[in-house]
């Protein structure tokens, strides 16, 4: 499996495939389907200082090749995530990336400083891009100066490297990426969901109780690829790419765009075995495409000086 | 244990306008052991629609490795499903959730089974299992109109069966509660599945009975991971405690969750 291994700040990944935050809970449900040890890492559900119930239902609505969700960061709160969920996950030999959320800088600082001390948490994913929390969240992810400030604050207290999850709901994604890089981010994860809406044909009202929700699934893949393509050429920190990945081919495409690892989100809901399936298929695909190691794929879309003859048939 | 399998279509027919009965065969049936569970059905090979559709199991036969579900073809996904032909394969994830507690009704007792519309199907397996253990069953089934009725004969073979239609075109005019209020038979336990307003009416009207409700909610994954189908618990109705309809339910004891 060494041809799939990836080294990133804080993360020694046996393969570059991990479930995305919010799409895998804290792993318990999926542990009945496969051994979580085979995963490159696990991005656990967002953690806030206090427990959150989240939004009223309906919380999901389907769209063409995608879905809208407005869960609202439901989670048991920092204390229980550490004492119960992370403790349970410690039976697995898999690095955990803890998704840190909040509605004010103090929230991020509190969660980051405590959760980063858990032994199996190898990196943080700073969630400044959840579109479903009224109090804030995304407010931190749409103004570059604010994003930089929260990144800096978290970096000061975190015991592990900090990745910042970027929102696609901005006019200039590169400005955001550069701002958090300036703030000391060790890496980026991108993209979070796109804000969207669906209306009920009979009532004329939004289907989601939150009115709007985050669009995910194959529908957003082209947007994610474009943003990673733009950002990866402008920053020097690595990117964990996500947005509609469901196959090994999707993974390679994200690497070509500039990602160094990937996260699989919505596809877990459709097929609980999707992560193991992708991990199994990647070496075969590398063979077909003529690569020895997956890292050779990173940034292939824009790397000027690379020969492109190795996979011509 | 939950399995994912491409199961073979043995039989697929329309029982009433837009109501389909689909019988599938495969190894996954060996995991079915309680009435009221459901499966997640991938209605198409592609990504449109993307998510699976939760559909309740109406009956299963482990020795034949077959199970039957009855669903309404209403949206895009179920309409696509309704076009699947015999011998084709359907991608199924299941069995999922916790079904009706058959053990709550004892031999010699009488149980009332109350179904509304597309909530009727899971009561069929339940009724068969209750009858098999010596429980007397009474069925009260509610439908919109006469043409929407299905399985009346099948239920009648197992026990007394009363039908209510909203428009009065068949049976009692009104709702299932209209029928139950006028029932002369005594019963100790109620098992029910149907629209939330019906479940609420049962919960407020029959508090003194042992009452079990099967809930319906929009789902994402069906396995408890996505937190789409979450509801508050009865003992903490505005707090942080919760149950997931898909993996803690869909069947709950009345009062366990907030309807």
Keywords:
heterodimer, A: about 325 residues, alpha/beta, 8-stranded parallel beta sheet, 4-stranded antiparallel beta sheet, 10 helices, globular, B: about 260 residues, 7-stranded mixed beta sheet, 6-stranded antiparallel beta barrel, 5 helices, about 15% helix, about 35% strand
Describe this structure in words.
The complex is a heterodimer of chains A (313) and B (259). Chain A has 313 residues and is α/β, with parallel strands linked by helices. In chain A, 31% of the residues lie in helices and 19% in strands. Chain A contains ten helices and 14 strands. Chain A has helices at 28-31, 78-89, 105-115, 139-142, 144-157, 173-182, 221-232, 248-257, 267-270, 274-289; strands at residues 6-8, 11-13, 17-19, 42-47, 60-63, 66-69, 96-100, 121-127, 162-165, 187-190, 194-197, 212-216, 239-242, 261-264. Chain A has an eight-stranded parallel β-sheet with strand order 3-14-13-10-9-8-7-4, with helices on one face. In chain A, strand 7, helix 3 and strand 8 (121-127) form a beta-alpha-beta unit. The model of chain A has no long low-confidence stretch (mean pLDDT 94). Chain B is of the alpha/beta class. Chain B is built from five helices and 15 strands. Chain B has helices at 76-81, 122-132, 152-156, 176-181, 196-205; strands at 3-16, 19-25, 38-42, 53-61, 66-72, 89-96, 110-116, 136-143, 160-165, 172-173, 189-193, 210-214, 230-232, 242-244, 251-253. In chain B, strands 10-9-8-7-11-12-15 form a seven-stranded mixed β-sheet, sandwiched between helices. A six-stranded antiparallel β-barrel of chain B has the order 1-2-5-4-3-6. Chains A and B meet through helix 1, strand 5, strand 6 and helix 9 of A and strand 13 of B.
